[in-house]
Amino acid sequence: MSSNEEVDQERRCFLRRATTAVGGIGLAVGAVPFVSYWLPSTDTEAAGEPIEVDISALKPIEQLTVVWRGKPIWLIRRTQAMLDTLPKLNNLLRDPNSEEDQQPSYAKNIYRSLKPEFFIAVGVCTHLGCIPTYRPDVGGVSADWLGGFYCPCHGSLYDLAGRVFKGVPAPKNLVIPPYTYLSDTLVQIGKDKEGTEIE
Predict the structure, then answer these.
(1) Residue 189: beta bridge partners?
(2) How far is CA 28 from CA 24, 106, 174, 195, in A?
(3) Pick from 9, 123, 31: which is nearest to 73 by CA?
């Protein structure tokens, strides 16, 4: 074997290593746009932050809708008459005692809320993700309707605490997000009283 062939072998080994290194660097640089595509944008991260909602102007029976994490959040001020309808419906509901994990532990009551007067829920039907309509009008959906939420897409019905009726397509009660009261008129949605956030 001549010395020229030995030099060629060394050169080939060097070129192979250099090519592999440059290719690896090129691959890493080329992958940056693809990896960054999957990372959430600043706007998306901000949209997931807890939000504060002023409920001082919310009148009885009125509904206020805000957006949190791309979903409508309903805030409804219920009257005593509305609250009085809730126990009357228990035998018509699929999960009247909120056994399914659709709410924080502090909202696992007949009102499904921290304060009975204010109902806060994710306004998305648990069937196929449609947006139900708020129907507080007694007799508005049917003769025995006492008020609640009606999903016109597939006919799912919920009472004024977001509990689903039997015999409708929706399988579960409406979701209650974590929230806490910062004052009598200011609600923080997305973080509960223990400071934990929704996943």
Answers:
(1) 51, 179
(2) 6, 48, 45, 39
(3) 123
Q: Which tens digit of pLDDT belongs to each residue from 68-108?
A: 999 999 999 999 999 999 999 999 999 999 999 899 999 99
E strand intervals along the chain:
51-54, 63-68, 71-77, 118-122, 133-135, 148-151, 156-158, 179-181, 186-189
Give 136-163 pLDDT, tens digit per residue: 999 888 888 999 999 988 889 999 999 9
Q: How far apart are CA 199 and CA 164, in angstroms?
A: 23
CATH superfamily of 46-189: Rieske [2Fe-2S] iron-sulphur domain (2.102.10.10)
Domain spans, the chain: 3-39, 46-189
**Residue 157 burial (CB count, 10 A):** 23
Cα–Cα distance measured from residue 72 to residue 37, given in angstroms and rounded to the nearest whole number = 26
The single-letter code of the amino acid at 72 is P
